[in-house]
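Q: Hi! First time doing this. I have a protein sequence and I read that you can turn it into a structure. Is that right? Here it is:
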Amino acid sequence: MLQAGQLLQLTTVAMLGLALVMVRSAGMAIGGHGLDPTSFLTSRHTVYATLAIGAMLLTSRFSLRRALKLRPWFNPLAWLAAMAVGLLLAQAIPGVGRTVNGATRWIELGNGSFRLTFQPSELAKWAVVLWIPFWIASHGGRIRGLFDRSFLVPLLGLAVFGGLIIGEDLGTAVLILSVGVVLLLAAGAKVWHLALLVPPAALVVVTVILNSPFRRARLTAFLDPWANPEGIGYHPIQSMLAIAQGGLTGRGIGNGVQKFGYLPEDTTDFLFSIICEETGIVGASLVVVCYLVILGVGFGILRRCGDAFGRLVALGILLMLGTQALINLAVVTVVVPTKGIALPLLSAGGTGWVMTAAAIGLLASLDTADHGPMFAAADVPEGRPPVDAAVSA
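A: Yes, that's right. Below is the predicted 3D structure, encoded as structure tokens:
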């Protein structure tokens, strides 16, 4: 019988396999070679998927408990957060940051066939998910007050990450901040403590939207895409058209029409529209079921964790993956305004595939680990309660 962690990994591999087929199909061009099976072996997406599976297998063997016991200066979880901040800063350096469609969200190193492109915000998402539980667990296992370091330092960290990302990628910044706030609540923060931050945070978001013409245009297009169907409303209209044309079983993989110059970002943010067009309601439902399997199995792992740190990490991974998937599905179905949020494990993007698969591997590692208390009494620093005394997430 499959263990929960094994089911997680098998579902992830299945989704990456689907991603290879659908990204290849969505990337087809008129006069191209179609879905040549041999081309998959040399495709860069195949390399990314292989790296993602390798990262997942590697992190599934990683012991988060051992990492937590290391001193901060030697702790990989703390260094992961520091690395994410450093890469976000490097992203703004001319010649290092790469600008696409007016947004500088990538770091590009090398040139020609040796060019490496990396998206720091993908690392930042998962760094927050790991660093906040690490900090709270290393300071007693729960948040103890408004002016306690267990609350103020994670809050400051969220502000740093949000501030570095929000100018170029509002959607990802809001996603990170939302997941971070829920983790703080799960760790024992008072609702009214975080409510104090809502007005200034809302003011920042509104200011960013109002000062950005393309973000205002996206909001206008969402409210009435048919007011300018060949301009700002073009993208949502084409997405709805692709979904509507799929019907029950779709046109067939490779037989979609919208990908031939009609639907922008068809291999990335709007890949789900192509999935709907080519596989219909059946294929779209299969994608949703895969996400529900990951979330359901992951929640079972969360409930079996015997310590606050493991529960917070599991909660953060599930929240990040589930919320991101929900936002993408809402965007492509025009339930919310267009945002640059990819569909986890499916939308083309090497960084996203590798980081998301690695996070799922960590979630699987919590299932194979000992679910007992994280520390013996002798391991707890003097004056701090055991971490497993924290409130359940």
